[in-house]
Amino acid sequence: TQLLEQSPQFLSIQEGENLTVYCNSSSVFSSLQWYRQEPGEGPVLLVTVVTGGEVKKLKRLTFQFGDARKDSSLHITAAQPGDTGLYLCAGPNYGGATNKLIFGTGTLLAVQP
Amino acid sequence: DTAVSQTPKYLVTQMGNDKSIKCEQNLGHDTMYWYKQDSKKFLKIMFSYNNKELIINETVPNRFSPKSPDKAHLNLHINSLELGDSAVYFCASSYLNTGELFFGEGSRLTVL
């Protein structure tokens, strides 16, 4: 069974601090996605990484796909209260069926003003 | 314009009752999904339909019955509700070949 373990599970930081969230698996994924979910809403797609070693930037968010395509990280620079939410990584199930996403265990981030 | 809308947003009901959740998407996607998010925020796929055809049916009790009247709509009916069914149910849609999901706001089901 493919699993995506995220760490840390919870993170509470002050505005302006940097942080990194990790998404790890023992399985190889053809691609990985990152979503952010705010309270009372559904997850919203932030980025998809598809190539081993790929780095993508979205303003203050930097996403990296591991060289072996078994892990990914999300780095936030100078966090702001608007970054607060549940961050989820997700990848297609073994065999690459893109329509069946396995979600990670989630990282709940709280950024205090 | 809401891309993926689901109703109702909240359901509170007694054990043994039957309830339905409706979902509609106006993104032109060919694939729709039901996901369940438990109290630990873990998201798990339940069903997926592509152009009205069921393509994913995870290990879900047969009390749960999805229906897709057309590719823009996907409904979920739950019979004989149990306490363990309490969760947030999310509808989502995508193009089959991208798998990049667009989620609705969720329907929080509480079974008493």
* Assembly level: heterodimer
Give the C-alpha Rg of chain B.
13 Å
Strands of chain B, count: 11
Major sheet characteristics of chain A: 6 strands, mixed
Q: H/E series of chain B, N to C?
A: EEEEEEEEEEE
Report on this model:
- Chain A has 113 residues and is mainly beta.
- Chain A has strands at 5-7, 10-14, 19-24, 32-37, 44-49, 55-58, 61-65, 71-76, 85-92, 101-103, 107-112.
- Helix content of chain A is 0%, strand content 51%.
- In chain A, a hairpin with a 2-residue loop joins strand 6 and strand 7 (61-65).
- In chain B, 0% of the residues lie in helices and 56% in strands.
- In chain B, strand 4 and strand 5 (43-50) form a beta hairpin.
- The termini of chain B are far apart.
- At the A-B interface, strand 4, strand 5 and strand 9 of A face strand 5, strand 9 and strand 10 of B.
Quickly describe the structure:
The complex is a heterodimer of chains A (113) and B (112). By secondary structure, chain A is an all-beta fold.
Relevant terms:
heterodimer, A: 11 strands, 51% strand, B: 112 residues, 4-stranded antiparallel beta sheet, 56% strand
Topology:
The complex is a heterodimer of chains A (113) and B (112).
Chain A: E1 5-7, E2 10-14, E3 19-24, E4 32-37, E5 44-49, E6 55-58, E7 61-65, E8 71-76, E9 85-92, E10 101-103, E11 107-112
Chain B: E1 4-7, E2 10-13, E3 19-25, E4 31-37, E5 43-50, E6 53-57, E7 64-70, E8 73-78, E9 87-94, E10 102-103, E11 107-111
Parallel strand pairs in B: 2-11
Antiparallel strand pairs in B: 1-3, 3-8, 4-5, 4-9, 5-6, 7-8, 9-10, 9-11
